[in-house]
Amino acid sequence: MTSQLTNALNRILDWIEQHRSYYVKYLQPGLSKDEIDNLVKDLPFQLPLEIYDLYQWRNGALHEGENLYDKGLIFKPAWSFRPLQEVVKICLENINKQKHLKNHLMYFSDWKFYGEKFDILPIFYTIRYYDIDCYRSGNLWISKEKDLNPVIFNDFEEGENILEKYSSITSMMLTIAECYENGIYNKYIFGKYYELENKIWRKYNSKLREFALQIIQEQSFSQSAWIYTIYELIEFKDLRNCQFLIQWLTDLINAYKKPNFIINCIGIDSKIYRKNLNNFDYFQLETGLPKILGEMGDVRAVPILITALQDNTFFQNNPFSRICAAKALGQLKDKRATDPLIEVLRNDWEEARKISAWALGEIKALSGAEPLIEALQDDNKEVRKMAREALFQIISNFPKVENLIPF
To answer: What topology is assigned to 333-407 in CATH?
Structure first.
């Protein structure tokens, strides 16, 4: 019986033959199972069955010289896959040089953790990076402990590390096949088909929440690990992550109290970036952690969010952390946050005052009315406007106080 992966690959090939037939000639005939076994016998880890399906279908794409443009690029607009002989050669060379993980996971300060959890198989390549060390391309991450083998693509656009992720090779090919059939990769225009592409991606790749959970629960805070999991955290809102994200935020706040502590923001996740170009707050741990905790809706996060709101060291390293913490507390609507938000409303910078006024309106605690009345005289008109709207929110809960409010 033909596998789901092989069916998806044939759907992709059907589309390519109709629309870009000049790619097809670069694809090599598939291998037999015995040929695959012989090629991979020296690898120090076992390959998943998907690899056998992929290479029995076709043994990668040939490439000729340095000009690789339009050479069998059948996966999305600019990706193809290597013959298995090359994949094995690259793998063994890097293992022998003890270079494998250092190159691929150069963005992880704690790359040894990933070396213990995953073996990396460099299957896919893009036209721009085929001829340099190949770990900035498409790799199958083979879990050593769990039935989890995601595909992660690294590319570079405008100096940023762009990530694309799939739950498995099968999920990847099902996603690409349906995207081709819906015209998403035909004359691809950046962002034009994002919503449809995202819907198709979600349909096949929900298992990536397990990948995110594994990293979040087994790591302390890590900017690089954050970038590798952020889209799944946002997209799937898996409450299993909440307690671990609370610990991440706790550890991060404590780390900033240490002299000379610095954390660099590197890389972005292309899915969340393309969804909204203004999503930069998600990419920084100081703002992204409180932002996601607020969106998850779990009140267990209230104490650490209050700490993030009040911590001046944390604020000084990223002033927008206070805004994100205030907004998260407003989303959680927990009355424990009322007094800390009142303090920000009375004493902080204008953007923080504005969001704190909004948050007090969301919480609807009666004790928030008086400071919001005071804020009607704020120097900043946006703060005054938000205070007025927040007061109307409180009135909806306590109609008897309406006459006490000077509108």
So the answer is: Leucine-rich Repeat Variant (1.25.10)
